[in-house]
Amino acid sequence: MASATCGLSRREFLAFVSGSAAGLLLHGADAFGQGQKDKARPNFLWISAEDLSPDLGCCGDKYAVTPNLDAFASQGVRYDRAFSHAGVCAPSRSGIITGMYPTTIGTQHMRCQGVPPHYVKCFPEYLRASGYYCTNNAKTDYQFDCPRTVWDECSAAAHWRNRPKDKPFFAVINFTTTHESRIRDRSAEMTKQLVRLGSGQRHDPAKAQLPPYYPDTPKVREDWARYYDLVTLLDRQVKEVLDQLEADGLAEDTIVWFWGDHGRGLPRAKRWVYDSGSRVPLIVRVPEKWRAAAAPDNPDALKPGIANDELIAFVDFAPTLLSLAGVEIPKRMQGRAFLGRQRGKPREYVYGARDRMDEAYDLIRTVRDRQFRYIRNYMWHVSRAQTIAYMDQMPTMQEMRRLHAEGKLQGPQTQYFEPTKPIEELYDTVADPHEVNNLAGDPKYKDVLERMRQAHSLWSHETMDVGLIPEPLFDELKRPGGKFASVSDPVFIKFAGNKEEGGTLTIACATLGSSIAWRIGGDPKDSDGWNLYVKPVLLKPGEVLYAQACRLGFHDSGVAAFRMGDAVVDKPEPTHVDHWEDKSDLAGLRQRLAKVKDLDFGGPNATTSFLAHLKDTKPAVRYWSVVGLHAWTKYPVDLAMAKPAVTTMLEDSSMVVRVAAAHAMCDWGEERVGLPILAEALQNPTDKTRMFAMVALEKIGEKARPVLPQIQAAAKDSDECVVRVAKTALSRLERR
Description:
alpha/beta; Alkaline Phosphatase, subunit A; Immunoglobulin-like; 8-stranded mixed beta sheet; 24 helices
């Protein structure tokens, strides 16, 4: 969103497009901390690693070989209770870059194309507007295309060394060394890299301490040891970056963060909300000269070698960095600063979510305090062991599936393959760090369960969690007809100067939430060299000013050009784009959906209540009512009530509801009426509706055989997730 419109109400925005540009620019200057530009400020370096749990020597792991990170931790503060809000990269990074929960801004599904509300922006824009040079090397994966207004540089060559002289910087360097895909990589190149580790740095599989939920086999041990080898490789890379900072004479002026984007890339860790998937290493080194500013109440809290046990959430990263930079934290940002003069109250809880992971649908929410983890499984009727093609390439996962099929798993190893999940899970992470002993049904923990349940309910309500809206319906809300909205072209509304000497030019865009990028001269097709617009631009005779407007989740505007002597306009023509968050009944819809899902606790006794909700005017409510009847109808007396009602839903106005009803009817022995609906849905123009249908066909197994040709056609679908599910179904149908 535009640097000039950040945090504005609609009334303020309309005042702007009516000509109140001067007041708007002042508002933007305040919001972006323009007054900080003339003050000495620290640099910031983020070193991030993928798929990394706190498996470091400095975190107490005796199997780890991480001498450089251990040394770095001895120079900084180790945050021992830092958590991602998601167990996978894209939703995790979406929350980091915005300071907002993905479940609030609609970016919770893995690799979706989000359309955040107008007031959401990527936080580096605030830093750029206040004078920082911001670089990203190089992963984005934010669940929306990264606008050119976010970074000064975003590429594999991005580096603080490219900044203008004496300008403070914020640099991100992301390492993929520990990524899930590297663990299973047996290529010659990977082998060569690991050989570089030498004696004493390779990890002996025989000495691995496996979690109790893994079978103890040579392949599992090899994966575990390989992961730790990669952590050691990462350790070397981190030292190289820190050495560069030292060589440049910048170490005493730079606050350095090291963190992992979610838990280790192994089964029952990555993608899951347990500590194994969400707890990460976080080390922050604050040079002595900046400690008083970073911790005004207690600078000694940032002394070298400190271990901090307060709860830190990923949504806290953005506001904390802004706080340290002296930039005002936007009021809409959901995280809270844990350093700087805007430090907030320490957290009592951190929160997390799991939604669609590639081609596998699930819906899980979690709350974690300092000791307990609470999990609410909204799709409790779905096994943890759903097929995810990418994940299933891991040898450990293949071993788990093989031994399960052979009936050789035992104890906690069987949990992953249970046909359903508990509606609620509760773990004492101190007594049970691997979270395998569910205490939700233990009367001794009733008070803890109720407290954590209430914390989840309150968070879900206050953050406007949109996860219960089925993805095909939400996609239509955020992008009607599947069409991207486009940002209006920027316009030039005021020129102060003359043709002979030049002057300053004011730029505006009528699209609420837009940002403006500008450059003078050069090739406007180049991605580099663009500035973030925050104040009128100085233009000299003979120069050409180019401008382009962007908004998260929208297509960028065209590039506008201005040459000295061109005419300006009085104001941009106001434009309005309906947004899913503006739907007047969204809050009411969420309340109704929560009420339907509360019926999960009623079990089979809730049949009558589910039936009543089938008449709701909202298809999302009707969908979950059908799902509830499908999941809970176990007895003939309930089936006698449910089947006629669900049969009527085969003619529902919403295809998503019809798919849910058809799935239920197939499972109830009525394939004759259910299969035609699912086959029809495979032709739907909405990709996620096709996905819902294909998931249903995959789950009914052999009963889907009559529509085998349609499934074979779906294996060539334009949507990758539909293809993956279709291929999974075919692999089972065609081998019988």
